[in-house]
Amino acid sequence: MKRQKVVKILSVAFAFACVAKAALAQTQAANATPPAGDQNPSAAAQAQEATNPFATSWLMQIQQNNNWVDMPVSHGSRMQSNLLFQPLMSVRLTENQALVIRPVVTLVNSVPYLDQKTGTRERTTGFGDTVLAFAFPRPLFGGRLMLGAGPTFIFPTASKHELGQDTWQFGPDVGAVLQLRRTIAYAFVQHWFKVGGGGPKTNQMNGVFNFTRVFENGWTLGTQSNLSVDWEARGDERVGFPIGPQVGKMCKCGGTPTLFQVQVQYYAVSSRVGGPEWNVQLQVTPTLKAPIRKPLF
Fold first, then answer.
1. Model-level pTM?
2. When comparing pLDDT for 76 and 248, which is higher?
3. What average pLDDT does range 181-207 have in this prediction?
4. Inter-residue contact 173 to 153 (CB < 8 Å)
5. What is the rounded radius of gyration, in angstroms, for the C-alpha atoms of the chain?
6. DSSP strand E in the chain: where?
């Protein structure tokens, strides 16, 4: 059964790569002879900008996650799916200081669960909670290293009880981005504590760790892992950590540079009860020029 799942996941990743390559070929055919002195950034530069969480452009990222989770009491496995809209918006406060705004809006969250009364498998779908994070980046070593920190919030916007935590949460957000030629690596860690609401006490952390290599033609290869820790959970249910390869391609959709990425992840650490085993993640990141270019102050 597990072998069949792996084959299906790899087939999805291969099909996505073929579609992205075909889209690139069409784009190149339409723009085969660029004018001399064209100052447009290369596909590699655009891909690196689209993966930079401290980018000066606005990144309108949409992320789809499909997790295969084990149901309790030998009820097999089912898929948990969510669709996230997580734009990144950079605003220049002064000549020397920017503000990066990073909301995460759960547009659709579809969660399987076991009905305790009937013992049957059920599913609920709706909106999830919303995260809003801020960071004030500071460049070091000529901008090759960027450090940033700020506050982060979780708002109880879930449409159903099973899809959220019903608590208002607040905490710190810290991150670092290292940019080298054709390589970008970053880490962001957020921690939240309950400050209100009718839900249970929360004390949780989320970390995103990314390493991406960018190639001349706009292809990317790397990995992005998402570490989650719930300090209020039991010891064997606290940590979730997936890892796996990510491949992407920078294309132009309607003239807008857009990075397509697909990733297959295996949960090296997961909850023993109801935790995910595999995840297939698709990211689409249109890159827009910042509409606010002048300093606000």
1. 0.82
2. 248
3. 96
4. no
5. 20
6. 58-70, 77-92, 98-114, 121-126, 130-140, 145-155, 168-180, 183-196, 203-214, 219-230, 239-243, 246-253, 256-269, 276-288
Per DSSP, the residues of 2-20 read: HHHHHHHHHHHHHHHHHHH
Cα dihedral 146, 262, 221, 45, rounded to 10, equals -60
What is residue 156's predicted lDDT score, i.e. its pLDDT?
97
**Which tokens sit at 36?**
């001399």
How many Cβ atoms from other residues are within 10 Å of residue 111's Cβ?
Answer: 19
Of the CATH numbers 3.30.70.270, 2.40.50.100, 2.40.160.40, 2.30.42.10, which one belongs to the domain with range 2-28+45-288? 2.40.160.40
Q: Which residue has the tokens 């109880």?
A: 156
Task: Check whether 16 has a pLDDT greater than 50.
Answer: no
Tell me, what's the pLDDT at 116? 66
Cα 108 from Cα 90, distance rounded (Å): 26
- The residues spanned by each domain of the chain are 2-28+45-288
The answer to whether residue 28 scores a pLDDT higher than 90 is no
Closest by CA position to 262, among listed 227, 226, 221: 221
User: What pLDDT does 17 receive?
Assistant: 42
- Picking from 100, 75, 74, the residue whose alpha carbon sits closest to that of residue 86 is 100
